[in-house]
């Protein structure tokens, strides 16, 4: 029995080590043959997929799917496989199918969804199908039974160190691993690494919560360091992007990791929480900085303490802390990358707009506290699980997810996924205009340090042009900045990372 894994196109610019596929492939590597097609490298993946399927050796098509652009290949390719190779079982995994199982399974061309971690479920499912045994008792699975959606129980997060090592060398046999180690702001050959699962918090808007239920487990520092040294020695990696939802949950693990990696001269980046890292000792922050930590991504979300409560951010994050923490990190030479979410629902249209304007002013305050802070702006796009409280609340306010899987690939829903235009009824077009114009002026006046293609001259010129608007707060219709961004292909890290 063989599996064809597919990683649909997620980024036009820089393919990253496909961790989702690599990890799920590791789970069956000993017992099943597998091949891999990466839509991020093969710009036209279908002919290659078709050739594999025509060989008659493929029984399963396993596709990883995040919301947004990945759907643009995942949907038509799965549909074509169902039409042309009806015997091939189609299995989707990843955040999109786990959070939107109904619309995926009812499409008629996805047979199974692996719900959350697939490391145990996937091999058990293949064994069951293979041996024609029942699969209804396998945890972490979603499928249709008598036309109705059926969820099996969820496993707790697996002990990460007990999972098999990732088959990097096998991946290298499909695509040279070097193509995945791209040049970024961090270094010439940047390794993507995923060192923990879940997150202990329950932010009401976050897609991680329904999958991991406020649980978190991390790979041990020693295993991370061993893997990184392997990738450094064998493939010349020089920098690391940690793709964990929350890399910094355990200060102890961070200290162990930083102490061991310090001598390796790797530059690294990860995602964390302000209130968590604010509790770290100064010595830990200094150690992180000395060990190569250059920038950390934080969901700052909002400067409004009431909204922070409403988002159920948990922990102790406040407006004041967001400001003082940005200033604190400056002392350690670590750049805070703050993301803000604008456009939360409010009592009236005026409240929604007032909150947006207040947020814009707050972002300016953050820039004053630490001008090096990188700002990422998202428009609130709710991602509640079907059936949850938040889902009920926004549905009552008139919000609807698409009812057909194909509708997810329309431009409007792609923008929704990219958190650029949320289709939420409480946000009016003039509000989106305001947010986008401010964002353009802000990006003009403070060009992101992570765009390594813009020259110093280009950045300076854009800054000069944007300065008048930034200082006078006249943000409307910033066409001149947009034009320069377009000509010089300015890249926003919120869409594709950096
Ligand atoms: C790397 C990454 C990217 C990369 C591309 C990745 C790629 N495939 O090439 C980039 C930077 C381009 C990217 C972009 C986006 N991303 Co992204 N991304 C991630 C990130 C950080 C890591 C993914 C990963 O490698 N995980 C490690 C693996 C091991 O975990 P896993 O994917 O969960 O895999 C396990 C299971 O899910 C399952 N599984 C997964 N796939 C499959 C497939 C099969 C066949 C089976 C059986 C099982 C299975 O088994 C695996 C092992 O247990 C995740 C967050 C995260 N920590 O996972 C966000 C994340 C998936 N992205 C997210 C989003 C929203 C986006 C964007 C749409 C928007 C944005 N602004 O970020 C864009 C646009 C995407 C696009 N262009 O299509 C969200 C999804 C949220 C949601 N609503 O569902 C996440 C969860 C981040 C977050 N916390 O908000 N992303
Ligand atoms: S801290 Fe981040 S990953 Fe954790 S629940 Fe909140 S938004 Fe999600």
Can you tell me about this structure?
This protein is α/β, with parallel strands linked by helices and 498 residues long. Helix content is 42%, strand content 15%. The chain has a domain at 2-151: Rossmann fold, CATH 3.40.50. The protein contains 21 helices and 15 strands. The strands form three sheets. It has a seven-stranded mixed beta sheet, sandwiched between helices. It has a six-stranded parallel beta sheet with strand order 8-11-12-13-14-15. A two-stranded antiparallel ribbon has the order 9-10. α3 links the parallel β3 and β4 (89-93). α18 (429-445) packs across α19. The model has no long low-confidence stretch (mean pLDDT 91). Bound molecules: cobalamin and iron/sulfur cluster. Cobalamin binds at residues 7, 10-11, 16, 18-20, 23-24, 40, 62-64, 66-70, 91, 93-96, 99, 114, 117-119, 122, 194, 207-208, 243-245, 383, 417-419, 494, 496-497. The site of cobalamin has 42 residues, from α1, β3, β4, α4 and α21.
- What is the number of strand segments? 15
Report the principal-axis shape.
globular
Q: Which range best describes the helical content: under 10%, 10-25%, 25-40%, 40-55%, 55-70% or over 70%?
A: 40-55%
Distance between the termini: 38 Å
CATH topological fold name of the domain at 2-151? Rossmann fold
Residue stretches low in confidence (pLDDT < 50, at least 5 long) are none
CATH superfamily of the domain at 2-151: Response regulator
Question: Using only CA atoms, what is the Rg?
Answer: 23 Å
Could you tell me the strand content as a percent range? Answer: 15-25%
